[in-house]
């Protein structure tokens, strides 16, 4: 067993974990933050994407001990309970960027890093940026629109009015 300390969504947590415990299981089972989804356990789908020291990682391929002393952000940390939605969450809502919702937490976390590094991405840059995250429902068009919307809001601009596409 290994003793680790991880800051998750701004809150420090200490735990004694087996060295083989995956970060996704620490988040979901030890910390009861179930917004991070387990989709494939092979890093193919991206449903488990979180930010580790600000960089998006697929938490099903990171050991919890590798997060020792680091900061983890999950979808639950995008806004405080009862607070207004952050621009990305608002973008997904306004542009129907989710259907079943299974990929949404991972998509939002990947898009968070993308917008942090490029606050004014093109549609092609967004598509490339989220290419490691799979969605089986939306066809990605509304996810791209949601990220464009969030980028505009974060830049202090009025988001372009788009008609959501239902697929």
Automatic annotation (TrEMBL):
It holds the Pfam family Fer2_2. Signal peptide: none annotated. InterPro entries: 2Fe-2S-bd, 2Fe-2S-bd_dom_sf, 2Fe-2S_ferredoxin-like_sf, 2Fe-2S_ferredoxin-type, Beta-grasp_dom_sf, Diverse_Oxidoreductases. Residues 2-78 form the 2Fe-2S ferredoxin-type domain. GO terms for molecular function: 2 iron, 2 sulfur cluster binding; metal ion binding; oxidoreductase activity. Keywords: 2Fe-2S, Iron, Iron-sulfur, Metal-binding, Oxidoreductase. This is (2Fe-2S)-binding protein. It comes from Fibrella rubiginis.
């Amino acid at each position: 067993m290994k003793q680790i300390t991880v800051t998750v969504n701004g809150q420090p947590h200490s735990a004694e974990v087996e060295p083989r415990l995956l970060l996704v299981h620490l988040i979901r089972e030890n910390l009861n933050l179930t917004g991070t989804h387990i989709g494939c356990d092979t890093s193919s789908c991206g449903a488990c994407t979180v930010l580790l020291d600000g960089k998006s990682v697929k938490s099903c391929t990171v050991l919890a001990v590798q997060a020792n002393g680091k900061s983890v952000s999950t979808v639950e940390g995008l806004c405080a309970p009862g607070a207004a939605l952050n621009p990305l969450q608002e973008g997904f809502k306004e542009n129907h960027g989710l259907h079943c919702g299974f990929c949404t937490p991972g998509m939002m976390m990947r898009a968070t890093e993308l917008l942090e590094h490029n606050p004014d991405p093109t549609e092609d840059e967004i598509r490339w940026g989220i290419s490691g995250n799979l969605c089986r429902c939306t066809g990605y068009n509304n996810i791209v629109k949601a990220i464009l919307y969030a980028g505009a809001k974060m830049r202090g601009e009025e988001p372009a009015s788009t008609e959501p596409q239902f697929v």
